[in-house]
Amino acid sequence: MQEYERPITIINQGLPAKAALKVIRLPTSWYAVIWERRERYSAFSQDRTDHNGGHEHMSDDEFLSRVQLVSSFVQGVDFLFDAFEPTGKKKRRMRRTSTDVHNRS
After folding, report:
1. How confident is the model at residue 13 (pLDDT cuts 50, 70, 90)?
2. Which of 48, 56, 64, 104 lies at a CB distance of 3.0 to 4.6 Å from 28, suitable for a disulfide?
3. Which of these, 36, 32, 74, 34, lies nearest to 52 by C-alpha position?
4. Whole-angstrom Cα distance, residue 78 to residue 68?
């Protein structure tokens, strides 16, 4: 099982609106929720069929593009992915160490 959470912008429901896409990816199915706020969300899913070819062979980007397509087709919710930085891989700054460059005797 894999879980994804991505910031998105809904673009076809009036003014653009910020929301979150949350997806659970299982071997033969997946489940997703687009969450704008408590009163406004959309849930959808897809099972593997011979027609859709499943998703187990897809990269993360290909899989999330499939979720985006199904959202548009099944729920009528079009969205764009916002900039995303994976959690757990934070950029670290180099620590400066003192040197004797400025201490000339």
Report:
1. confident
2. 48
3. 74
4. 7
Predicted pLDDT of residue 7: 97
Dihedral (CA of 16, 8, 42, 65) sign: positive
16-to-30, 35, 70 alpha-carbon distances in Å: 26, 14, 19
Neighbours of 76 (CB within 10 A): 10
Phi, psi angle pair for 63, to nearest 5°: -65, -45
Mapped to the 3 state alphabet, what secondary structure does the chain carry?
A: CEEEEEEEEECCCCCCEEEEEEEEECCCEEEEEEEEECCEEEEEEEECCCCCCCCCCCCHHHHHHHHHHHHHHHHCCCEEECCCCCCCCCCCCCCCCCCCCCCCC
User: Taking all residues of the chain, what is their mean pLDDT, rounded to a whole number?
Assistant: 86
| pLDDT confidence band for 90 (50 / 70 / 90) | very low
CB-CB contact of 27 with 34 (8 Å): no
